[in-house]
Design goal:
- The structure is a homodimer of 328-residue chains.
- The first copy, chain A, has 328 residues and is of the alpha/beta class.
- The first copy, chain A, has 14 helices and 10 strands.
- Chain A has 2 domains: 209 residues, Rossmann fold; 91 residues, Rossmann fold (3-Layer(aba) Sandwich).
- In chain A, the strands form 2 sheets. Chain A has a 6-stranded mixed β-sheet, sandwiched between helices. Chain A has a 4-stranded parallel β-sheet with strand order 5-4-3-6, sandwiched between helices.
- The N and C termini of chain A lie far apart (48 Å).
- Chains A and B meet through helix 12 of A and helix 12 of B.
């Protein structure tokens, strides 16, 4: 693993510093349980509710850690990012709290709710096409012009250390977990989870949950190297981005397994959560419950932490109601 | 007020007994706040989240108090009720916990989610037409046949004492409230609120919130006597029923004022709560937020308790998405 030397891998001390730095700007989100879902799965599920987080998602942890860690001169030039949504509004939120500019490159197809929220927090949007290629090209041009500090949505040690504070709270709130399940897109949350748990609770198994239709992390994990899709199509719009070197480091070294779910399984798990837990959650964070329901033997009898990553949904476009208003 | 002698009006001691009796069967629901809504209203809002209650609504408080207060011989014959929904499934839940039968007369037009939940808890449904007249006729016939104990959805001292436990928790969880806003339909929740607050915190103002299109309580309050509509039409389907003598006693003696909101205002407040608080709430319990948004001068600068009465929504029929799938 000699090439790890080139990577700036965050340490446990970075997580603790991050937690101290961001605590004034985030919520310690609650743990919610459901007797109905426990009975249905045979497991004890502890939902870490980042849908109730500031800006509606866990991404505010990493974004705040990056923004509030900048020296004043760098901060003055502002921050910039590309994101399918939650990182964008989280960075806008954090930049707004610090009083610095934030520019966001976002696919023109991103949900209106997320675009409105970015603008609501004072961010500026520059649109690109909905592909990784377009996003990166448009972004490079914008950063060259503004000189803003680039905060990558996940492949950034400051961001991973920030996301890692979620599991830090989780293992303080719930003792003796057997495993944790979190969604995987670019791998920021799962990397943060690996970072914290590998140091503080190495016996806890870490499962990453991914849409079948955007299963690049699953295929990477099985192949032993990063495989990237350019423009996957899934209802879990937060999970379309590929792994990068830093997140691949954590995924390849610390993840127990990656489990996938179909679109219908994701939609069913999302609707079930709304129906029984009365919580608005995004399609992306229904993937963990979907894989738990799909693999009962793996989770039965276990204490399972489930990270509900966000609640920013376009309420006018719900995946179980088709364009004609019919039920799916 | 000589005719009050005929009424069996619950006392504070009944509320305390109820709380002790039902505590093993209900949640002490959390208080949730929203900086966004505080900024928008200029008030400090404390949402008492009965949408996270057992069976998804506050009604389980009154139903459990009635069911667990029965002597064994009466209980063995079962319980019965008519209800537009949440009382029905709450009574089924409570009866199921005690292991006794529960029969429910319910309008054939009630949401599928509510019918399914009643059956899921082991209740039996007998359908009627969606009018108060039909409901009462079908019900009388059924009770004559089964000998079940009638637990009225709201005009029952056991039920009112049960609902009163909600405010008992609220004033313990949030100190120095200036006012409490709760929806009003038949008046069970508002009567319970009056019962608790008039004894323990008489300085707290009590506002009832009602749909304009089912404003029989508003008109009753202004007229000084009960006015009942037979079949009002409103998205707030839990608030269609009229006041009765017991609830009128509390409303006429202790409510500060009744405020109304239009259908669109109710739908907007419901959607705003889903969007910003990430909570699934029923149209009925969006009425308090709707009237707070509509009357900013009344609430600005005040500490306001807002009772979120339930979260049982038919997710296939959301009021801001029309039958053709278009936005409203």
């Amino acid at each position: 693993m000699t090439d790890q030397k080139k990577l700036n891998i965050p340490e446990l001390s970075d997580v603790k510093k991050a937690h101290e730095r961001i605590s004034p700007h985030i919520h310690c989100t609650p743990i919610v349980t459901s007797q109905f879902l426990d009975a249905k799965t045979g497991a004890e599920l502890f939902f870490k509710c980042e849908n109730f987080q500031k800006a509606g998602a866990f991404k505010v942890r990493g974004a705040s850690n990056a923004v509030f860690g900048l020296d004043d001169a760098t901060a003055a030039k502002g921050v910039a990012t590309h994101s399918s949504g939650n990182h964008a509004l989280s960075l806008s939120y954090a930049a707004g709290r610090r009083g610095i500019p934030c520019t966001v490159v976002m696919p023109r197809t991103a949900p209106h709710a997320k675009k409105d929220a970015v603008i609501g927090y004072g961010g500026t949007i520059v649109e690109c096409e909905p592909s990784t290629t377009s996003r990166e090209a448009v972004f490079a041009e914008m950063v060259a012009k503004t000189g803003a500090d680039f905060v990558h949505p996940y492949n950034d040690p400051r961001v991973i250390a920030g996301q890692a504070t979620c599991s830090l709270e989780l293992i303080d709130q719930v003792k003796d977990l057997d495993c944790v399940v979190a969604p995987i897109g670019g791998g920021g949350m799962i990397s943060g989870t690996c970072l914290t748990l590998s140091h503080l609770a190495p016996s806890i198994e870490i499962y990453a949950a991914e849409p079948e239709q955007a299963d690049d992390a699953y295929r990477s994990f099985k192949a032993g190297h990063i495989i990237a899709d350019d423009a996957p199509v899934t209802v879990a719009d937060g999970l379309k981005v590929p792994l990068k070197d830093l997140t691949w480091h954590f995924v390849s070294n610390h993840v127990t397994d990656i489990l996938t779910a179909s679109e219908q399984e994701i939609i069913d798990a999302m609707k079930l959560t709304w129906q029984r837990m009365k919580m608005v959650i995004e399609p992306s964070c229904a993937v963990p419950l979907a894989v738990i329901l799909k693999n009962p033997n793996l989770f039965r009898g276990k204490k399972v932490g489930v990270i509900i990553t966000g609640g920013n949904v376009d309420l006018d476009k719900l995946p179980w109601i088709t364009a004609t208003g019919d039920k799916q």
